[in-house]
Amino acid sequence: MYKAVIIGGSAGSFQVITKILSSLPANFNLPILLSLHRLKHVRSGFVEALSLKSYIQIIEPNDKEPIKPGKAYLAPANYHMYVELGNRISLSTEEPVNHSRPSIDLSFISAAEVYRNKLIAIILSGANKDGAYGIKKVKDYGGITIVQDPNECQVKTMTEASIKMTKVDYIFTTNQIIRFLNRL
Amino acid sequence: MGLFTEIPFFMNNYNVEIGIVETRKIISAILEHYNLDYKNYALTFLKHRFEKIINDYNFKSADNLIEKIVNEPEFFEQFQKDLSVEDTEMFRDPSLWRLLRDNFFPKLIQENNKVKIWMVSMQSGEELYSMAILLNESNLWDKVEITATYDCSKNYELILNGIFDTKKIELNDANYKRFNCYSELSRYYKVDNINNIGYWDTSLIKNIKFIKHYITFENSLKNFNLVWFRNGMIYFNQVLQDKVFGTLYESLLPNGYMIIGDKETVEYSSYNKKFKQIELTEKIYKKL
To answer: CB of A152 within 8 Å of any CB in chain B?
Structure first.
């Protein structure tokens, strides 16, 4: 019944993402959107690193790339990543939001507007507040909201800001997130 | 609103939010009063952009914005500027610029006596000044002829006067270092520290010919060896992208080249088979 999973993360989230991706089966049947803060000028290497242990194909989409189940779409360096009507990726070089491009807020808001209550949104460890407003919008549209347990995070700022901004559905450890996704 | 007023841009400070219905309403008003059609722009982008403008000007609603657009042509000009994405940087994707300098241009110049380049729909000066610096440092001006088009007069004035926002200096300097580690970008600009405005050496662009032109609905200019349009089409939907790829295709001489943004592709357009990507990691296409 769900249409997509979106994950936002920043400092301290790389290992968590890697663990989540490596724990999902190759036939996982939802698209996964990854909006992660990363170095602006380093275009290559990130997908390769994430792909090492993942059964799911991870791509840095081109603009207007169709969104398909069973693939993970990593926001490219130095672009914002939106979900466009018609279930395609749309990219933008607009000014950074919360000092970030990609901005987690922008990705989450556009995904919330397109997928509404059929979206699962997850905020992981991170060092700024980007994502907190985005996950609120997901909640407003009736989507499922999950935040990584701040006690487990390397950097708590992002998760704590999210919990403060909205009454999220679940505060989960990495293992609980993995179990949740595998039961979908 | 000043030239580079620092607008606090935190999403959670947005007082007014709009939906798809209101976004379409604004598009209709612009079409009706100015005969400019934004219908085939990427909708999520436009919605976010309208929302930002409404909040930056402290408007109460989409209707408020429409009223202002319809009744004040001067505001509409500023609105067009606010709508355009000028947030690029000098030597964005330094690997592309190095490739142009070391391989692409030397080959292109060998193939043609005079290389004619069209830089499409410039919203700010970064791409133009980067190109001019490359041509300067490689001593290529006598072999190259650049036509630059713009659609927003306010942006054109800034380009012509070489004005840029100093908050990008660090980033620009770093990008330039990745392009040319033997020199400093600061050779090419001056800074007014009191007003936080940077000024490019405008003699860099003295040989560039400027023309006002709307890429979304005007006919193509003709007879170019290279057409350059990076990260402009990402703001269009597929219908408009297809049309613009057609315009770019028509503008090129046989065997001409097209350079687009590193995450843009012809793959989803009907021109997929009419261009061939010639570099693995950069979006340089050859007209077939």
So the answer is: no
